[in-house]
Amino acid sequence: MTLKTRLIPCLDVKDGRVVKGVQFVDLIDAGDPVAAAIAYDAAGADELTFLDITASAEGRETIFDVVARTAEHCFMPVTVGGGVRTIEDIRKLLLAGADKVSINSAAVSDPDFIARAADKFGDQCIVVSVDARRRQTQAPGRDNTDDWEIFTHGGRTPTGLDALEFAEHMVRRGAGELLVTSMDRDGTKSGFDLKLVRTIADAVHVPVVASGGVGTLDHLVEGVRDGHASAVLAASIFHFGTFTIGEAKAYLKAHGIAVREDALDQ
Amino acid sequence: MSSVAIIDYGSGNLRSAAKAFERAAADRDVPPEIIVTADPDVVRRADRIVLPGVGAFADCRMGLLNVRGMREALEERVIVDAVPFLGICVGQQLMASEGHEKGVHKGFGWIAGNVVRLEPSDPELKIPHMGWNTISITTPHALFAGIPDGPDGLHAYFVHSYHLAATRPAEIMATAEYGMTITAAVGRDNLFGTQFHPEKSQTLGLQLIANFLGWRP
């Protein structure tokens, strides 16, 4: 098998601008998501994910322009998540140049939406975002349990749904990939919730992308080796120039993980 | 001006395909016009034809048949006039005899063999086969000029759960390994098809598209 582990930088976009900016190269405009996308493309990223966290309805139109301009320059797969609720949302994103859409809240409120979307556009472009938190144990002084609850709205809204059951259900409905994010670890730089990632990756036949908590290159290795993820997603370690895509790939390779290292200047 | 028709029948994102062809076209001395079209008459006049496709075989087939006159225009221009043709992903699968996804459906019958589900020997391997894989060129072809293959070669971007199990070895142009041997490209005469997405395959993809634009079968 020579399918490579994918390394995916994720850009949070609000009202058409990158949240906090991207500082790993001398971008003329550190807040322009398209400039960041072009830089990641050139650096050898295997895919790119835009997470649109725009709150207002009018601001939401900006993501279509971001995707369209990205498609002019980047010839690699692009996934867009955040606020995808209708078949029309998906169609517009795909027409703008997205390859996959990632769906979170709408998958929870209407699981049949995933089935309709997969039927319409194919399983391969429907990613379900599994945002999970460990359930708190009731016993004082005990560790949290090894089961997880699905949250929506950026991790703010509990749903009562069990994460593993939800993940399996979504795959049965037609999800072609799962983006598994630990809301406990997101932003902590303390590494993936490996048990969460592995529990889901081992239970489903579709690829799992591990997300939430990357702070070091070892975390990326763990996500693949111990979490059994097909791809690893990270944001801040790349945006702030802590590591380059090339350094991350070299590190994965040194730890026995097959990565794509096509010469980019050919 | 010569033209390249990318057929739009409601399947997937044609913008990125069009952009990749425009990028490759711009490097030519006389850039051809890249036209995304649902008009059979435009296809009849095109000098090169590209058939993309994502999703299920049956849905793509229906989508194509629903464009009045398109199937006939394709047959006329590709088979009778023999202009260069490139099928991508499900657009390549439609070249087969039959598709066996969501029931059995007739293909164009241009390449012998059926489109069947991937069954890797290792049950741990994920389906869809999604991501970057290297290819092995099994039949040298003008479209592979300047593309290093094998384990140290360039990578192609795949995303699919079915592949065209071509029965005539001479019509298999390239393969990929994923717990089984997957058909990565097929071809004969003026026909060529790739299971992977050249428009998403960076260096390899742009080279293949450039080769297609200059191809004289």
- The helix content of chain A, as a percent range, equals 25-40%
Mean of the pLDDT scores of chain B?
A: 95
Relative helix content of chain B: 25-40%
Oligomer state of the chains in this structure? heterodimer
Largest interface: A-B, 39 and 44 residues
What is the overall number of helices of chain B? 6
Sequence of secondary-structure elements of chain B: EHEHEHHEHEEEEEEEEEEH
* Main sheet record of chain A: 8 strands, parallel, barrel
Kindly estimate the percentage of residues of chain A that lie in beta strands according to DSSP: 15-25%
Q: How many beta-strand segments of chain A?
A: 11
Instruction: Work out the radius of gyration of chain B.
Output: 16 Å
Question: Which descriptors would you attach to this protein?
Answer:
heterodimer; A: 266 residues; alpha/beta; globular; B: 217 residues; 6 helices
Q: How would you describe this structure to a colleague?
A:
- The complex is a heterodimer of chains A (266) and B (217).
- Chain A has 266 residues and is an alpha/beta fold.
- Helices cover 34% and strands 22% of the residues of chain A.
- Chain A is built from 10 helices and 11 strands.
- In chain A, helix 1 packs parallel to helix 2 (62-73).
- Chain A is globular.
- Chain B contains 6 helices and 14 strands.
- Chain B has helices spanning 14-26, 40-45, 57-65, 70-80, 90-93, 202-214, and strands spanning 3-7, 33-37, 48-51, 85-88, 98-99, 105-106, 113-117, 129-134, 136-137, 155-160, 162-166, 172-177, 181-188, 191-194.
- Chain B has an 8-stranded mixed beta sheet with strand order 2-1-3-4-14-13-12-9.
- In chain B, a hairpin with a 2-residue loop joins strand 13 and strand 14.
- In chain B, helix 1 packs across helix 6.
- The mean pLDDT of chain B is 95.
- At the A-B interface, helix 2, helix 3 and helix 5 of A face helix 1, strand 8, strand 10 and helix 6 of B.
Q: What's the arrangement of secondary structure elements?
A:
The complex is a heterodimer of chains A (266) and B (217).
Chain A: E1 6-14, E2 17-18, H1 33-43, E3 48-52, H2 62-73, E4 78-81, H3 87-96, E5 100-103, H4 105-109, H5 111-121, E6 126-134, E7 148-152, E8 157-162, H6 163-173, E9 177-182, H7 194-201, E10 208-211, H8 217-225, E11 231-234, H9 236-239, H10 245-254
Parallel strand pairs in A: 1-3, 1-11, 3-4, 4-5, 5-6, 6-9, 9-10, 10-11
Antiparallel strand pairs in A: 1-2, 6-7, 7-8
Chain B: E1 3-7, H1 14-26, E2 33-37, H2 40-45, E3 48-51, H3 57-65, H4 70-80, E4 85-88, H5 90-93, E5 98-99, E6 105-106, E7 113-117, E8 129-134, E9 136-137, E10 155-160, E11 162-166, E12 172-177, E13 181-188, E14 191-194, H6 202-214
Helix pairs in contact in B: 1-6
